[in-house]
Amino acid sequence: MKHFRKHRGFTIPELVITIGIAAILLSVAVPGVSNTIKENRLAEQVNAVIIDFYYARSEAAKRDVRVIMCRSADPNSADPTCGGEANNWSTGYLIFADDGNNTNNTYDAGTDTLLRRGQPADDSIRMRTTDTWNVALEINPDGFLNESGATTMAICDDRGSDSGRQISIALNGQPRLYSKDIATCTP
Asked: In the chain, where are the structural domains located?
């Protein structure tokens, strides 16, 4: 009676072919996954800004005071202030009810109510605004902007304006989102 040997494992040619096919599949899949991750990060940042704007608008109506969104160099500090680099909102922002002096756009812990801290953007994301939205965006209790005109924020990552988004807010307080192939990452 003959005994047959059972062979286990792969031969060298089978192993080389399998690794080659896996390498080809990975070279196709990895850029797609990387692009999807970047798209999701960008969408998350855009959604956060729009949600925060709607929150500020609803708080203005509810409290019957102006609510301000102002850029901040460090929104998470114990004593946050409005400020930072001109037209750059990537470091974060504050949302506060201007309960005290209705003529300034600066957060004053003594008289104003801090409502929310907008978190800094991911390192690869840039948030730039027009001069109308440079330091602060003022929202009146009726939901309209207390600005000289409509305003725009561009949100882009390292892929540039081809993949960027722009949030444009009309004087009546209605935001519009523009995506893909925006003119520039600096509105």
From this structure: 12-179
